[in-house]
Amino acid sequence: MSLQNLRAIAAIYKFELHRFRRTWLTGLLVPVITTSLYFVVFGGAIGSRMTEVDGIPYAAFIVPGLIMMSMFTESIFNASFGIYMPKFTGTIYELLSAPVSAAETVIAYVGAAATKSLIVGTIIFVTAHLFVDIEVAHPIAMAGFMVLIAVSFCLFGFILGIWAQSFEQLQVIPLLLIMPMTFLGGAFYSVHMLAEPWRTITLFNPIVYLISGFRWTFFGKGDVGIEFSLAFVAGMLAVCIAIIGWIFRTGYRLKK
Amino acid sequence: MASIIDIAGLTKRYASGFEALKGVDLSIEEGEIFALLGPNGAGKTTMISIVCGIARPTSGTVRVAGHDILRDYRGARSAIGLVPQELSTDQFERVIDTVTFSRGLFGKPRNDAYVEKILRDLSLWDKRHNKILELSGGMKRRVMIAKALSHEPRVLFLDEPTAGVDVELRRDMWKLIGELRQTGVTIILTTHYIEEAEEMADRVGVITRGELLLVEQKTALMKKLGKKTLTIVLADAIAALPPELSEWDVSLHAQGHEIEYVFDAQAERTGVSSLLRRLADLGIGYKDLNTRQSSLEDIFVSLVHQEKAA
Ligand SMILES: Nc1ncnc2c1ncn2[C@@H]1O[C@H](COP(=O)(O)OP(=O)(O)OP(=O)(O)O)[C@@H](O)[C@H]1O
Ligand SMILES: [Mg+2]
User: Number of folded domains in chain B?
Assistant: First the structure.
């Protein structure tokens, strides 16, 4: 990649981070407040009745799920907005007329959105430390997993932003699909706690594998084996990249 | 002069099935100002969008500065600055940031002095720290021009640059375009204001319903298609045109003080001398004569009418 291409990537990346900075206060306060609320409600109220899950104190048990949940929504919202807004305001003309390749465009937009969701994930992790003691079993794997999740959900959000033709369409997938799937995906409980047939049904929810994998990096165990979780993330990355490749080849909803 | 843009057999069929361009061939020479004239929906924006990479061609080829717009899009797009018809800006960004962004997006190294020069030339320097939403419509259009110029393009597309701009600003815009040409930038503009093409363009292309009807040097075009109007200032006002003049295309003006005669300047017999003889026979005296070339607007209207009749 030449210097010229790097400059273009840097320009978009900086532009996007600048957009986030305009709302940095709410952007950072919201995760801190919601995390605290979850700890008060789940950690405090429920945790006092249900002290341990799979041998892990309940308050600590929900931390990976909390981080994942916020990162899912942050990634999707940031990445989808980043590409939807230029389409909506018409400023996309400049991107389309610039000497920038599809790969560079995706790296810049997804990179910026992923950066923000990694920041949010880290803030939640730090906030959680105020409430519970957590020792992370595999810190490097944890960081790596966060990056993978941020990138794959930002890619997904990028696709969503290109597909969406209204603000409603932009919101419908994260609110009506991802949120419920996350709640049902074991963010606040272990799949083992469910009775059949729910336990088997739950295993069809891809989010289970993601949260389980992230929980494994914390406690060395999850609902399913870490290899399944990694396979799922890899699969999601591959599918998103394939779809984005197709979008740019055909100009789908980008070019007339 | 060498051509900087070569368009050959360009067609565009939109997803709706509408055929917006029906085989356009056009060469733009480096350094010229080319005006693309046509009524609403003629295909001007469509053509520009394809050259700039915003729309996909259905068939045909386009080369910009020797680079094919599909196979070598980087080379082609690096050479182009585009100011689209619609005002679309990042409202919350500051003027200077959005211009700097454009330069980076086109892969150029940061150059604050150059950006300052552009903003000064466009009288935006004082507003550089303002958010775009705080600017007037004309200023926003100039911001879009600044963005297009920020990466030092060789070709500048201006899609209706003076739409919604007041008379004074329009004059400024013309001046600016003239100055840009001095620096060697090729300019292609579309417009509905014929006076704009007349004022600035070296060559004019007339497009209607997806077809380029003609491309001519502006002066040649006006000579070739131009009608002339002869104004005869009468010594004494007359109440009505005498029936003896009915074989000429004449009309009475200025409360009976002037007769106007429209004639084809290229015709073998213009009818001017016979008209003047007839006036003398009728005893109508005159104290002044002058002729004037028809404007591009007249030419344009008659061309489009011819096309519709055909
Ligand atoms: N995305 C689209 N889908 C279908 N048809 C389109 C699309 N964009 C433009 N057209 C049609 O193509 C034709 C040419 O449009 P274009 O915008 O190129 O005209 P124009 O010459 O720029 O007109 P104006 O002077 O009004 O700007 C019009 O009939 C228009 O309705
Ligand atoms: Mg147009």
Answer: 2
